[in-house]
Amino acid sequence: MVLPRAAKTQRRTRIQEEKEERILEAALEVFSASGFRGSTIDQIAEVAGMSKPNLLYYFRTKEAMHRALIDRVLDTWLDPLREFNAEGNPVAEIRSYIRRKLEMARDFPRESRLFANEVLQGAPHIEDELKGPLKQLVDEKAEVIQAWAKAGKIAKCDPYHLIFAIWSTTQHYADFDVQVRAVLGQEQAGDGRFEDAARFLERLFVDGLQVRE
Amino acid sequence: MVLPRAAKTQRRTRIQEEKEERILEAALEVFSASGFRGSTIDQIAEVAGMSKPNLLYYFRTKEAMHRALIDRVLDTWLDPLREFNAEGNPVAEIRSYIRRKLEMARDFPRESRLFANEVLQGAPHIEDELKGPLKQLVDEKAEVIQAWAKAGKIAKCDPYHLIFAIWSTTQHYADFDVQVRAVLGQEQAGDGRFEDAARFLERLFVDGLQVRE
DNA sequence: TGATAATTTGACCGGTTGGTAAACATTACA
DNA sequence: TGTAATGTTTACCAACCGGTCAAATTATCA
């Protein structure tokens, strides 16, 4: 038989899982570095160590590869926000959210850049996710923050812009890594900048959101 | 004579200035929306209302167009930071820097996205600018901030990460505009989000940097 | 083992891309 | 006005792009 594309089979073979994994890993590498339009199937094939038609055996089109990648990464990416807990101590919650987002910027910069590329270029492939699941999740957490503010546990502030501020400051260290390194000077080898950033940001947000008389 | 490309002539004719202007305007439109690799000369030509070979008469290559654009925009882009004044009132200086950066995000989002695209994809074309002029300027302003902190005028903090935080939070409204709109819901027509952001960010940074006993 | 299905590859296709060559049109200026 | 320099266009090219196809190879399992 010729055409029963991998996706159509009910049971996924060992080979299918392995190869799709390898392809998506390579796709992440390439898409995150060049964006969708700037990436080519050949590049991904080379990184994956497979032939181009072989990739297209597992994913019919470049778009399909991109979509599969987005779907797989998006959930993980939103996990830190999901853990935001209404019952917790507000300051501790915000502090740990910042910390987790910074850790993700450090440990999964490619995932961050994948979304950054996508959103930056108008989010042509993830508009629905933004207006649907993402908005819903943010709305929910914004209410939590609002409640904290009303209860006097943190300063009154626009919860949406607070979330934007945390997103932007933390993801900055993944998305604009080259710039950060250039400005700091690359003398320092390790991940020191992440610890410095954590210290600074935790302080900024905690003090900035403190209730003051 | 056939080849004395526009660039080589000593005097720039009226036509040259007009056309180069139109081309760079179109290039800004296209490059900022799709990044370097994702943009095509044809797209730029169409936006500029000229033929492709005509563009290539004024800029020999796609790279040359991109470089000319970057060179032109970079200076303007760094102006707000340059205005940062050591003699001024620290809180007022920081507040007005945030305000100016937000205004630029609102009024010149394409310029912001141009750089974001470039840096995000590893800054292959502006590495020198980052490590040279940009770093130098930031170093200078970081010293100013450091001095303020030592003088007890603002809380002690890492000046570099403070600058990163201001950059990221403000540019976020240009670079991630689609996401911001999606999350806020596009009911609100105007630029209200910029005013809300200004209120939030000024408060965050001012309170966050206040000296506290 | 053998047959059947799953996987992989090389050759290829039409469309797009950055860029060129040369003819043609327009402008500047003596 | 005439002519040389400047500006514009049409036709074109080689390389690259996303994707197809049929043949070849490998894995699965009765």
Output the keywords:
homodimer, 213 residues, mainly alpha, Arc Repressor Mutant, subunit A, Tetracycline Repressor, domain 2, 2 domains, 10 helices, 75% helix, DNA-binding
Description:
- The structure is a homodimer of 213-residue chains.
- With 213 residues, chain A is mainly α.
- Chain A folds into two domains: 6-60, Homeodomain-like (Arc Repressor Mutant, subunit A, Orthogonal Bundle); 73-209, Tetracycline Repressor, domain 2.
- Chain A is 75% helix and 0% strand.
- Chain A has ten helices and no strands.
- The first copy, chain A, has helices at residues 14-38, 41-48, 52-58, 62-83, 90-107, 109-120, 127-150, 159-175, 177-184, 192-209.
- In chain A, helix 1 crosses helix 2, helix 1 crosses helix 6 (109-120) and helix 6 (109-120) crosses helix 8.
- The longest helix of chain A has 25 residues, at 14-38.
- Chain A is globular and about 65 Å long.
- Chain B binds a DNA duplex (30 and 30 nucleotides) through helix 1 and helix 3.
